[in-house]
Design goal:
Elements: H1 4-17, E1 22-30, E2 35-42, H2 49-54, H3 71-81, E3 85-91, E4 95-103, H4 115-125, E5 130-137, E6 140-145, H5 146-153, H6 161-187
Parallel strand pairs: 1-5
Antiparallel strand pairs: 1-2, 2-4, 3-4, 5-6
Helix pairs in contact: 1-3, 1-4, 4-6
């Protein structure tokens, strides 16, 4: 996968396939610690201890459609290449928390990619699922919660074209503002 947003999309789709009704995606860039952290937390069916240990083996999968599972192994490899790692915590019946770490300044760190498009793809494809996204850069944060948005829509479907246009602009503006705030802090 060329960027981290594609990893996020793949892992979130796995969460949904595991019957999650809520998926939290958190990205934290901590320049003082030279650390990028990606967390995906779901309330799906979870995995037992044996499956957690095998989850990064590309030849082990719970999917019936193909004999290999590449999502977690590829993310684990991307983290390892950027001087980081992957940690998975899961409880059957309660969900899974995945935490990937990367050295922020590492030359092999994949770009974040098009987060706005990734989030829109998830929202369009799974309007029944609640998505929470938080992106923190040092002391600034942008977040989006589809549960709150749906409550404000008063019956208008979240995947309605006009809503999606507003959401895409909101996400892009929020992430752009996050970058600008931190660039202005750096220049001080």
């Amino acid at each position: 996968m060329q960027d981290l947003s594609l990893h996020i999309l793949d892992i979130a789709e796995n969460s949904i396939e595991a019957q999650s009704t809520r998926v939290e995606i958190r990205v934290e860039e901590n320049r003082a610690q030279d650390l990028l952290v990606l967390e995906i937390i779901d309330n799906g069916r979870g995995m037992d201890e044996k499956m957690v240990k095998q989850a990064t083996d590309p030849f082990v999968t719970t999917k019936k459609t193909r004999p290999v599972g590449l999502g977690l192994p590829l993310l684990a490899e991307a983290a390892k290449q950027a001087n980081g790692g992957l940690n998975i915590q899961s409880t059957p019946g309660k969900g899974t928390k995945l935490r990937a770490t990367f050295q922020l300044s590492h030359i092999d760190l994949k770009p974040l990619g098009d987060i706005a498009q990734t989030l829109l793809t998830l929202i369009i494809g799974h309007p029944e699922v609640e998505f929470f996204y938080a992106h923190r850069v040092d002391n600034s944060e942008f977040s989006l919660d589809t549960a709150e948005i749906k409550a404000q829509l008063d019956g208008v479907p979240i995947q309605a074209p006009e809503v999606l246009t507003i959401l895409k602009n909101h996400i892009k503006e929020g992430l752009d503002q996050l970058r600008r705030q931190n660039e202005s802090r750096e220049s001080l």
